[in-house]
Design goal:
By secondary structure, the protein is mostly beta strands. The protein has one helix and 20 strands.
Length: 270
C-alpha cells in the first residue's frame, strides 16, 4: 500500500470510528434510565392572568414570565410567584411568543418564533433593555426552503454572544440546533449541530456557571453538559406532572423551576 492509499485508509477508519462512537452514545442514551419519575416539589399555581406560560427566566433574581399569546406583557413576579409588576411592550403583537431568556448584558429576549394563527416566514427575537426601557429586534437568518413548510421553534438560549436555537420537531428525535453569532444588531449563522431528545422540545434553560443545559419535552427533562458545541448527555428525568411543559429556568445552579400548560409551578433539585 502506497503512502496516499494508507493515508486514505487511516482517514476512513477514523471517520468510521467517530460515527460509531456517536451512534453508540446515542443508542445508550436512548436506552438509559429514562424510567420512573423524578422527585419534584410542587410550589403552587400562577395567577390566572398568565393563562398559558410559554417562557420563564430570572432577571435580578426575580422570575419573569410571558403568555403564549393574547397580551404583550412581561410578568415580573416575587419569590412566591405572585405578580408584582407588568411591563408592557408597546406596538407589538403576540401571535405566538415562545421562550424567554436573559443574556449577559441583562437584556430580556422574547422569541417571536411560534406558529399559532399563522406560520412565520421570518423569525425574530425581541430584546427588552430594562434600564433604557427600549426594544430591539433581531431577525433570525433562517427561511423556509424545499420541503420545509413552516419554521417552528420554542426554545433558545444565549451563551455570551452565541444564540442556540432548537428545532421543536424531529422525526428521528435528532433535533437540529442552529448556532448564531450576534454582531452588533445582526445575527449571523455560525453552524448547525444535532442533539438527541425524545419528543418535541418546548423549552430550554442554560446555566452558564456549570455549562449545564436543561431541555424540556412533553413529560421529560433532559440534562446535558455543553462542552464547546458538544451536548454531552447526563440525565433523562421523566416528570409525572410535566405534560406540556413550555417554560423552564434555573432558579440557581442545581435548582430548576418549570411550569406546565395549566400554570402549575414545580421545582426540581439536581
Amino acid at each position: 500500500m502506497n503512502t496516499s492509499g494508507f493515508f486514505f485508509f487511516l482517514m476512513f477508519a477514523l471517520v468510521f470510528f467517530m460515527v460509531w462512537v456517536n451512534e453508540e452514545r446515542l443508542f445508550s442514551w436512548q436506552k438509559s434510565t429514562c424510567s420512573g419519575f423524578a422527585k419534584v416539589k410542587y410550589v403552587g399555581r400562577l395567577n390566572p392572568e398568565i393563562s398559558e406560560a410559554s417562557g420563564l427566566t430570572y432577571w435580578n433574581g426575580q422570575p419573569v414570565c410571558i403568555n403564549d399569546s393574547n397580551d404583550t406583557l412581561l410578568y415580573v413576579m416575587n419569590q412566591q410567584y405572585e405578580i408584582e409588576a407588568k411591563v408592557g411592550l408597546p406596538q407589538l403583537k403576540n401571535f405566538d411568543w415562545e421562550e424567554l431568556q436573559v443574556d449577559d448584558e441583562g437584556i430580556i429576549w422574547v422569541g417571536e418564533t411560534g406558529i399559532n394563527n399563522f406560520p412565520h416566514k421570518q423569525l425574530a427575537l425581541l430584546g427588552y433593555h430594562v434600564q433604557e426601557k427600549k426594544l430591539e429586534k433581531l431577525l433570525i437568518p433562517l427561511s423556509v426552503t424545499g420541503k420545509q413548510k413552516v419554521l417552528d421553534f420554542e426554545a433558545f438560549f444565549w451563551r455570551g454572544n452565541q444564540l442556540f436555537l432548537f428545532s421543536k420537531f424531529a422525526a428521528d428525535n435528532l433535533h437540529r440546533i442552529y448556532v448564531f453569532e450576534k454582531k452588533g444588531s445582526v445575527l449571523r449563522k455560525n453552524t448547525e449541530i444535532t442533539c438527541w431528545a425524545e419528543g418535541h422540545i418546548t423549552g430550554v434553560a442554560f446555566d452558564a456557571e456549570s455549562s449545564t443545559v436543561a431541555m424540556a419535552t412533553y413529560g421529560r427533562i433532559f440534562i446535558y453538559k455543553l462542552n464547546g458545541l458538544d451536548f454531552q448527555p447526563k440525565a433523562c428525568l421523566p416528570i409525572r406532572h410535566g405534560m406540556q411543559m413550555e417554560a423552564i429556568a434555573w432558579k440557581k445552579p442545581g435548582l430548576l423551576v418549570f411550569l406546565n400548560e395549566e400554570g402549575h409551578i414545580f421545582e426540581l433539585e439536581l
